[in-house]
Amino acid sequence: MQTHKRRVKTRHIILAVMCLMYFISYIDRVNIAVAGPIIRHEMGLTTVQLGLVFSAFAYPYAFMQVIGGWLSDKYGPKLVLTVLSLIWGAATLATGFAGSVAMLVALRFALGIGEGGAFPTATRAFTYWMPVAERGFAQGITHSFARLGGAVTPPLVLAVVVAGGWRDAFILLGVASLAWTVLYLCVFTNSPEQNRRVTPEETAEIGYRAGDCERAKRAATPWRKLIRRMWLVTFVDFCYGWLLWVYLTWLPSYLKEARGFDLKQLALFTALPLLAGVIGDTLGGVVSDRLYKRTGRLRFARCAVLVVGMGGSLVFLLPMVSATNPLMAVLYLSASFFFLEITNPVLWTLPLDIGGRYAGTAGGMMNTGFGVAGMISPVVFGYLIETTGSYNVPFTISACLLGVGIVAAFFIDPARTVEADEERERLEGRPLDGMPAFMQAGAAVRLERHHLRRPLRWWR
């Protein structure tokens, strides 16, 4: 009797490669925070100069969201993500040879350019590889690897720093990033029809139609439709991103200054909320997909997870502010971050649901909310701490913003897609966005006379 080994599906191999990208890119992003004190001591940097090095990443990161996503829609995610990963890999590698604050700022700026367009491009890469019922899981597992990268960065980078110095840490991470680019080039294709390994059965499971990828490249980007459908998702992402940036930037300071933990305790209790986020990211995507499979209601499957995630984060954040026991405060923070991260895969799935073949641009629009929050939240949070002398006020404001995001999430409808808008306009005979004016006029004339059975003679 002949037995057949179960074949690993190609889309799952691609998903594993993308998980590795999220993991490496996040380490490249936050490694500077771990090595920062050592770099400052070696180069004799002031606090302001080190802050400039830290912030140089955020601005191109926010700016590149829509640009990177749009480029991936037009030229395909394989080419765009290859170029972006080469940029951030080379920037990370070159940081190990930096000799001045100006060079550090320039290299962090380049890192922001490379990583700024990476996540929207990765989202676009899933458009023709992940079925609707697996998109939540795909976004959840990839972003859980990003949080895992953030959690392992301190011990990983510090181990290399102890063994060989901070420069070795950047050189090794840069080499790892460039090695991932080679792996990506070998494995990924823009669509299933371009991949020799994909079977017809898997193509049917994905729901891909032959020629969809090439037709998407030729299509004009419907900017107005995308903005109309995505602006609310962007706003909810801003509310989510505000609190996430607080965790990523102010958590160690809060635990040390407001809760009195020493350095040894700080390493453990800083990692604990981030590890809770790893579980939350994966669970949020799985739950959303399960709800969709069981109910067939896409809006319920997405919005219910958004509301529960942000609501749960709010519920645990409020008692954290008033907790007197430092350990209980850490547990509340971990629970709050767990629920907050439940929403993350859904937020990244919505551009796929709503944008479809324009998912790169839609994902860039959505994550612009997170980028803007990254520019504002840490500064405002720090200003409020300085003016009030307490962490309670900025945490309370963050909680209020979560409440506003919950209300906004009720009005998101992923079933109202951009492609549905285009199809409706096509059936109604209206021209699509991006059509030149003279073509619109011509189309209007043709549509007006289409119903006539005989030609209209000019003398009548």
From TrEMBL:
GO molecular function: transmembrane transporter activity
PROSITE patterns on file: MFS (PS50850)
Membrane topology listed for this record: Multi-pass membrane protein
Pfam entry (one): MFS_1
Residue span, Major facilitator superfamily (MFS) profile domain: 14-417
InterPro entries linked to this entry: MFS, MFS_dom, MFS_Na/Anion_cotransporter, MFS_trans_sf, Sugar_P_transporter
Keywords: Cell membrane, Membrane, Transmembrane, Transmembrane helix
Subcellular localization, as worded in the UniProt entry: Cell membrane
Regions that span the bilayer: 12-27, 47-67, 79-107, 169-187, 230-248, 268-288, 300-321, 327-350, 362-385, 391-412
Recorded GO CC terms: plasma membrane
PANTHER family with a match to the protein in the record: FI19708P1-RELATED, SOLUTE CARRIER FAMILY 17
Name this polypeptide is given: Putative sulfoacetate transporter SauU
Organism: Paraburkholderia sediminicola
